Amino acid sequence: MHPNPLFRSEDQALMREWIGRAAFGMVFLTTPEGPRVAHTPFIMRDENRLQFHLARGNDLTRSLEGATALALINGPDGYVSPRWYDNRDTVPTWDYVAIEMEGPVRRIADDELDTLLYDLIDMHERRIEGERWSAEEASEPMWNGLFKAIVGFELDVREWRPTFKLSQKRTPAERETIVAGLAGNGNEALAAAIGGTAA
């Protein structure tokens, strides 16, 4: 989390919105073998339950249950040039959205993992235009084989540490110039975040 309180928020609905928008992140844990990170899709359940799954062979899988872990969602990010400021006698910066979540982890039962997989498929298939794929199209041997190769987990979020570093120190006019500059250079997602709209 960024140390400047200007870039923080207590808005739980906003944080959950970004988690749903990104839907993919990282889980960090110090294991007996050393620090490890896993990359995984996420789903937020109610207020504070973050669910995900990992390959059974992942280094984190055997160490997560009962541990306190850190999960991270990254939103849009990008370089902000001083050319977009009124006074160019300064230095560049990097704007970004990141949400850190910390809490104890439990392994979820097979029926919860099955629900998690169906919900993840449904959520992402809805985001793609055209004819949707259904999990029922996978044969039972295929589904069962892959199901046995993964393990589901739930992180009970006890600490939220969000950073919304979106040029808040700049004047409204400068922010408009930054938004235009970012959008004009292909970073529409960060431009929309700074401009206060969804991308």
Automatic annotation (TrEMBL):
Pfam family, any one: FMN_bind_2
Xref: InterPro entries: Split_barrel_FMN-bd, TR_PAI2-type
Superkingdom to which the source organism belongs: Bacteria
Name of this protein: FMN-binding negative transcriptional regulator
Phylogenetic classification of the source organism: Bacteria, Pseudomonadati, Pseudomonadota, Alphaproteobacteria, Sphingomonadales
